[in-house]
């Protein structure tokens, strides 16, 4: 949606009214967000509004009475809504497969259920809000402020999953946000939006057909070619999802609002634990705070810590979709994290600490890449076939013969490295950019926009995480 002309029209009108009418900002953003989400379907909007209103009512009664029942009822409503639309059909079909009982007749209403856009994201945000009210960490705002908090179109469909303690204070003071006359916030907003568009439209959508080619031929490709397809998918999903998140940051800045950065160049991680601190940060922290820690975290011994890690990551995987592939992907990462923590314990004893960082980054990337096979494959059978082929017929001669095919992966990794260096030291890079002659900078802006527009005209692909 972010890359469509209709969205940019809505954005421009909303931003102009927002800055022209400070006292009407809540209403402007509330209506704009409803239009944005309602564009996918009025039924989706009605369901979302109903769940938001019910959750707000539960939080209001919870704060007023202190009764735990309102908290549990609110969680039950949100989980029930998510399970019904996302998992009920999957569970019924699995039961049919095991027992032979036809629980979903062809043409029935259940068989025609369509997953509401962004339901996983807004459900987790509603549940986190309700939990934070229950814990006394946030106060219940007025309903319009709550609606803007939960529905702000920059992050509604695919995150970041904003917490009440981070976003509600900004909403509370939204009428007092002043327009930045030197346009610093606007410029950075445009930068983040442009970066997101380049990632999504120019890079991720270009990689997509190559990824499809490799995974459609899972049974016929081996060794280096299988690894190449998995590498390309790893970058495709990163560029697609982080592109959306970058645009969300930029959109927030256009309205003077700070959105949580969701990705921190995760493929430069030194270990699997660091990867999950840098990949989909708001979901990782959500799983930690609302699943892993309540299960007991690391407080009850190593065995239970391992159990909690595997369980939390398996739930995280299943959150992504009603399929065994997603569940196994989460389980795989849980096992990887357990093995890494065990390695850490032993490395402190045996002092295995002098491994060069470039090697640990490389090894971590391979581990993550193996996991992406389960995420991308349509079935577990296809995933196992693809994965087994990655370790067959692989030799140095195959790598040398196909070295040119690795060139796109190397370019993508260089882009990843540039992104990391730029965002860690952006004042230096910005200063160097400003020292360039104005015509040269103007030409650079022009070429970037021409590049984006050229790729937009070739057709638009939906963001991968819209299906979750």
UniProtKB/TrEMBL annotation:
Pfam families named in the record: MBOAT (PF03062)
Membrane listed as a keyword: yes
Membrane-crossing residue ranges in chain numbering: 7-28, 34-58, 70-89, 109-130, 142-162, 219-239, 309-335, 355-375, 396-418, 438-457
Entry annotated with the keyword Ribonucleoprotein: no
Keyword field: Acyltransferase, Cell membrane, Membrane, Transferase, Transmembrane, Transmembrane helix
Location relative to the cell: Cell membrane
Membrane topology per record: Multi-pass membrane protein
Broad class of where this protein is predominantly found: membrane
Family: Belongs to the membrane-bound acyltransferase family.
Protein name as it appears in the record: MBOAT family protein
Annotated organism of origin: Dehalobacterium formicoaceticum
């Amino acid at each position: 949606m972010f890359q469509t002309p209709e969205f940019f029209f809505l954005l421009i009108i909303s931003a102009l009214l927002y800055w022209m009418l400070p006292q009407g900002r809540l209403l402007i953003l509330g209506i704009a967000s409803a239009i944005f989400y309602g564009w996918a379907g009025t039924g989706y909007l009605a369901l979302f509004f109903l769940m938001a209103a019910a959750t707000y009512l539960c939080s209001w009664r919870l704060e007023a009475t202190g009764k735990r029942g309102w908290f549990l009822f609110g969680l039950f409503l949100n989980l029930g809504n998510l399970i019904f639309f996302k998992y009920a059909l999957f569970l019924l079909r699995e039961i049919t497969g095991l027992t032979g009982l036809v629980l979903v007749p062809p043409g029935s209403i259940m068989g025609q259920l369509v997953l509401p856009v962004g339901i996983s994201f807004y459900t987790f945000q509603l549940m986190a809000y309700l939990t934070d009210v229950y814990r006394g960490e946030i106060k219940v705002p007025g309903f319009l402020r709550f609606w803007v908090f939960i529905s702000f179109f920059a992050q509604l469909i695919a995150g970041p999953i904003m917490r009440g303690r981070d976003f509600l204070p900004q909403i509370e003071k939204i009428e007092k946000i002043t327009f930045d006359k030197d346009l610093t916030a606007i410029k950075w907003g445009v930068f983040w939006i442009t970066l997101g568009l380049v990632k999504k439209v120019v890079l991720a959508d270009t990689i997509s057909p190559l990824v499809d080619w490799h995974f459609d031929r899972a049974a016929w490709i081996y060794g280096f070619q299988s690894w190449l397809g998995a590498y390309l998918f790893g970058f495709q999903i990163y560029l697609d999802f982080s592109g959306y998140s970058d645009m969300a940051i930029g959109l927030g800045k256009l309205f003077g609002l700070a959105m949580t950065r969701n990705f921190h160049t995760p493929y430069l991680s030194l270990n699997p634990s660091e990867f999950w601190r840098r990949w989909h940060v708001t979901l990782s922290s959500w799983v930690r705070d609302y699943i892993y820690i309540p299960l007991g975290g690391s407080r009850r011994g190593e065995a239970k810590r391992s159990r909690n890690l595997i369980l939390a990551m398996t739930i995280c995987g299943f959150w992504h979709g009603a399929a065994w592939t997603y569940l196994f992907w989460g389980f795989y990462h849980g096992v990887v994290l357990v093995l890494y923590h065990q390695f850490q314990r032993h490395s402190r004893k045996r002092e295995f600490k002098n491994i060069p960082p470039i090697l640990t980054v490389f090894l971590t990337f391979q581990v993550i890449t193996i996991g992406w096979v389960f995420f991308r494959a349509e079935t577990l059978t296809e995933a196992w076939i693809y994965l087994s082929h990655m370790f067959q017929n692989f030799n140095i001669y195959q790598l040398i013969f196909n070295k040119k095919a690795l060139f796109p992966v190397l370019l993508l990794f260089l882009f990843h490295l540039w992104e990391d260096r730029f965002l860690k030291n952006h004042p230096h890079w910005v200063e160097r950019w400003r020292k360039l002659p104005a015509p040269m900078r103007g030409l650079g802006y022009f070429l970037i926009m021409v590049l984006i527009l050229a790729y937009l005209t070739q057709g638009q692909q939906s963001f991968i995480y819209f299906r979750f």
